[in-house]
Amino acid sequence: MRLRLLGVSLCALAILVVTGAQAGASGLRAAADPVVTNYDSEIRVDRDGALKVSETWKLSNVTGTFTRFLLTTDHLADDVDHVQKIEDLQVKAGGETKKAEQSVEGDITSIAVADVSGDAQLDFTYTVRGAVASTLNGTEVRFAPLTGLSYTVQDANIVYSTPEVSHVFCVAGAVDSNHPCTLAQLGETAGPTFRQQGLPPGNTVRMTVGFPAGEIAANSIVEYRKTFKRAFSTDTAQLVTALLVLLLGAGALLALYRLRGRDQVDPNRVVPASLFSLGQDTRIDFTPPADLRPGEVGTLIDERIDPVDVTATIIDLAVRGHLTITELEHANEYARPDWQLTRVANAPSEELQRYENVLVRAIFGDNDTVLVSELGQQVRANLGQVQDALYDGVVKRGWFTERPDRTRSLWTTMGLGLTVLGVVLIVLLALFSTWGLLGIAVTAVGVGLLVIGRHMPAKAPAAGRVLGQVAAIRGELLEMDVSELPSDQHVELCSRALPYAVVLGGSERWIDALVATDVDDDEDEGFPWYRGPRGWHLQHLPDSLRNLTTNLTGALFTR
């Protein structure tokens, strides 16, 4: 008997333990699964389109901060967004106001309520503006109060208080779902009614209520997405304005060039001129017209000082007897060539142009000799003075009304400034408007000003005759039969013509004419202005002068 009672007691105890364990597990599951047991909402739609929303949330097992979300941005075509604003928010629990944190991130407005514990009821009231959009036949309220909630909503009921309604529509599920709600109907005595049962976490309820024209005012808040297409809109106003700016800018650039940049001379005019003239005793004199120097010729033609203008001037100074060029012996066939420039003490008494004097001082300084390989930084530092003197010289001759380099610099600076302004406009207009094309048009005009700025130095009328003479000289250098020059003056006259040919073209044929004076196989010293190293022949002159020009350019202009 005692054993039977003991067995019964043990069984009862086991049952109690099992039952208690199951009850505890059920309690843990309930605590781990917070839900919204009921969501009840009343929405009054005012005539001005404002939604007055009153909500009751019944929560179970929710502890800590309760956060609910509303979909407040609707993306439409053509980069258009309809945005809804949540205003006048109040949250109460048990009749007492609760603090709520409202924030907007992307398409979602979130409302967080802290210090929620266990089973609770929260009452929300707020106003929605921007939820009413125009349609072909009237207006529609588009509203999604349940969006992406972290909890299951067991039962949701929404009732609208509205004037006359034309149609209703409701979908539930994922954001892009078209699954209909549990209930969406037009009541005979009440407003539109919507119901959704068993809404899983993360899902959305979206409702549409339509009204006939004139019932409810549209109050859509329209914003535009920042896209490349919209920033550079080709709508009529933007496109026409940009084209107008381009046309006006092109017209202004053309007028500017015609007034300030076009040469006041005929570039095709040829004036009879020759580097050679018949002197006394049937000798040929070298007489360039207007006492033109090679550096001046090059500057007059392209309105800028190029390396070839300076190297041709150095060769011309040597030919005229102011310095000599001596090619040094090569240590081996692979060694870099070098030359020694020597100032001539008893140079001709002719007056040098100012830029020629400056160049001689820049080359030699206080010395009488210098190696091309050692011209270095000092000469390069003084080249600016040479260029200044040469530019001042062409202005003094009346070929330009102002220095070409300063004219180019002025218009280039203006063009660069306008281009930078255009780029800034592109950025600002693209970021804050749809007028990016206007910035592109301004930038294009700036680039155009940069281009024509290079051609703005205009030659004065006084340059017309000189340019005609230069054209005649170029023809002579390119076509003249060099063999017609007197044999006893052949070297002298070919040497004098060579610097002009370096600038104007045809230097090879004049160098070949100098090479042709070599009639034997013996080594040659060269000419009074150019001396070769031991074992040098005139046949080496083309390579020697080509290397000299390359090394002079590198020494004088390479930084």
TrEMBL record:
Keywords: Membrane, Signal, Transmembrane, Transmembrane helix. The chain crosses the membrane at residues 239-259, 410-429, 435-452. Pfam families: DUF2207_C. InterPro entries: YciQ-like_C. It comes from the Bacteria. Residues 1-23 form the signal peptide. Residues 286-514 form the Predicted membrane protein YciQ-like C-terminal domain. This is DUF2207 domain-containing protein.
